[in-house]
Amino acid sequence: MKLLIFAGPPSAGKTAVVRQILRQLAGESFIAFLKIDVVRAFEDEELKKEFEIPTRKVYSGDVCPDHTGILVLRDAIAWAEDLGAGILIVESAGLCLRCTPYTTQSLGIVVLSAVGGTNSPLKMTPMIALADIAVVTKVDLISQAEKEVFRERVREVAPRVDIIETNAVHGTGLRYLLKAIRNMPEILCADDIVLKGMPPLAVCTICAGKKEIGWQHHFGILKTLDGADDLYRGE
Amino acid sequence: MEHFAITTITILPGRAKDGRSESFKEIALRAGDMISIVGPTGSGKTAFINDIEVFASGDTVTGRTVLVNGEVPPDEMVRDPAKKPIALITQNTKCLADLTVLEFLEMHVKARRIADNSRMAETIRLANEFTGEKIAGTMRMTSLSGGQTRSLLIADAITVSSAPIILLDEVESGGIFKENVISSLKKNNKAVIFVTHDPVLALLSDRRIVMRNGAVEKILEPNGCETKILGQISGMDRVLSDMRERIRAGELLTDNGGPVP
Ligand SMILES: Nc1nc2c(ncn2[C@@H]2O[C@H](COP(=O)(O)OP(=O)(O)OP(=O)(O)O)[C@@H](O)[C@H]2O)c(=O)[nH]1
Ligand SMILES: Nc1ncnc2c1ncn2[C@@H]1O[C@H](COP(=O)(O)OP(=O)(O)OP(=O)(O)O)[C@@H](O)[C@H]1O
Ligand SMILES: [Mg+2]
Ligand SMILES: [Mg+2]
Ligand SMILES: [Zn+2]
Ligand SMILES: [Zn+2]
C-alpha cells in the first residue's frame, strides 16, 4: 500500500486536490481516506458519497491535530491494509504551522493557496521544507507576476521541493502529481515508519488546557517577552 | 523563450462531453494568428483554452493533446511559470498584493531578472492605450477597475512576460478599447486565442472556433466575407459605447444628442 500525507493551511485546497486524485486514480487503485481535524470535518462523508470509497475522520479536540495524526497513523494504516487498499490518503487539519505530519515511506504533499499572498510560504517553513511536493492552488485567481514570485518564495524555503501549480477545481497541471504517485514506492514495513522532522518542543500546560495568561502560571517549555531563549520550568 | 523558438502550437482532437470524438483533424496556431472562441455557456470554451495553457496531453477532461513545434513540449516549459510561453488572462485574474502599479511591475521585472529599467513605464504607457480610465504608476493595484486591471495585465504579458502566446477568457468589458488591444497584439506578432461573447471581437479574428457540448463543432474562416458586416457593427458598437460613456457621465440622452436644456 502507498501512503500519501497531505498538509497545508485551512482552505488551501487540500480536499480539492484529493478529489482530483480520486477522479483520476480511482479506476486503477482502491483508495482509502482519513481526515484529521480539530472540531468539525465533512470530507469523509462527502468523499464517501462522491467516490464510494472507505473514509474515516478523527477529531483532535484539545491536542495538536498533527500530533493526533501521528498518534493514529499506525492504526489507520492497519485499517486501510485490512480493507485491501492500494493507497491511503491522509488529510491533516493544517492548523499547526510548527509540527509536520510527514513520515518516511510516504509521499508528503503540502498544499498552499496562491491567494494567501506571496509571503505566506515564508511563514510555513517547516510545513513546506519537509514536504516532497508543494502543490500551489488557486493560480487561476492571481496575476502572472504573483505566480512567479510565489514560486520563488517556495524555492527560498525549500530549494529542492517539487512545485506544482494548479487550478485544483479544474485539476489543471496535476499530471505531475499523479505521475509522482504512480511512481512512488509502497510502504515497506509499517512498523519502521517514523516522523521526518523533529517534533517541536512545545509542550506546556496551555497544550493541556490551562487558560491563564502569562508564563508565571505555566509549566514546561516557556517563553518570556524579554528572554530570547526558551525557559523550562518543571512542575 | 530565447533558447526555444516556438513556431507552431498544434491542438489535436479530444472528445465531447458525451464521449464522441471531435471531428477536426488539428488546429495549428502560429505567430500573428488571431482565433476567437464562441459558443453557449458551458460549451467548453474555457476548457479549450485551459488545455492550451497546461499543454494537455490527453490528461484533461477533454482528452485533447497540445504540441509545440509538432512535439510534446519539454517539462520545464510546461511547469515553470517564468518559462511558460503562454500568458492566460481571465476575468478572475487579479493582483492580490496591496502594491502600487509601479511596485507590482517592479516585482515582475525583478522576478524575471530583467535589467531594462524602462520596461515599467513602457507597460503603463501601453496599458493606457487599452483603457480610457488613466492608469498611473502611483495608483494601488487593488483600487484599479476591472478594465484597468485587465488592460495592465495584458500590457504586462506583452512587455514583461514577452509571452508569444496570449489567451484571453472573456476579458472584454466596459473601459477597455478592445480594437486597440487586438491591434497591439497583432503588431507584436502574438498568437492570440480569445473567448468572447462580443460580436466585434468575434469578427476581428481570422478564425472562429464554435464550441458545443464540450467539443469543437466548427472552425469558421470568414476570409473577408464578413468585412462589410464588421464595418457596420463596429459603427454600431461605437455609437453604443459613446452612449454608455454619456450615461456614465450622468447625461440624459435626447434625440439631438445634446444635453437637455
Ligand atoms: N478558484 C479556485 N478555487 C479553489 C482552488 N482550490 C480550491 N478552491 C476552493 O477553495 C475552497 C477550499 O478548498 P478545500 O479543498 O475545501 O480546502 P481544504 O484545504 O481541504 O480545507 P480544510 O480541509 O477545511 O482545511 C473550496 O471552495 C474550493 O473549491 C483553485 O485552484 N482555484
Ligand atoms: N469535452 C469535455 N468533456 C467533459 N467535460 C467537459 C468538456 N468540455 C468542458 N467540460 C466541462 O464542462 C464544464 C463547462 O465548461 P467550460 O467552463 O469550459 O464552459 P464555457 O464555455 O467556458 O462556459 P461559460 O460561457 O459559462 O464560461 C466544465 O466543468 C468543464 O470541465
Ligand atoms: Mg479539506
Ligand atoms: Mg468560460
Ligand atoms: Zn503542533
Ligand atoms: Zn503548548
Write the layout of secondary structure elements.
The complex is a heterodimer of chains A (about 240) and B (about 260).
Chain A: E1 2-7, H1 14-25, E2 31-37, H2 43-51, E3 55-59, H3 65-83, E4 87-91, E5 107-113, H4 125-129, E6 133-137, H5 144-157, E7 162-165, H6 175-183, E8 220-222, E9 231-233
Parallel strand pairs in A: 1-4, 1-5, 2-3, 2-4, 5-6, 6-7
Antiparallel strand pairs in A: 8-9
Chain B: E1 8-12, E2 27-30, E3 34-38, H1 45-53, E4 65-68, H2 75-79, E5 86-90, H3 101-111, H4 119-130, H5 146-159, E6 165-169, H6 178-187, E7 191-195, H7 199-204, E8 207-212, E9 215-220, H8 227-248
Parallel strand pairs in B: 3-7, 3-8, 5-6, 6-7
Antiparallel strand pairs in B: 1-2, 1-4, 8-9
Helix pairs in contact in B: 3-4, 4-5
The complex binds guanosine-5'-triphosphate, adenosine-5'-triphosphate, magnesium ion (2 copies) and zinc ion (ZN) (2 copies).
Guanosine-5'-triphosphate (GTP) binds near residues 8, 10 and 166 of chain A.
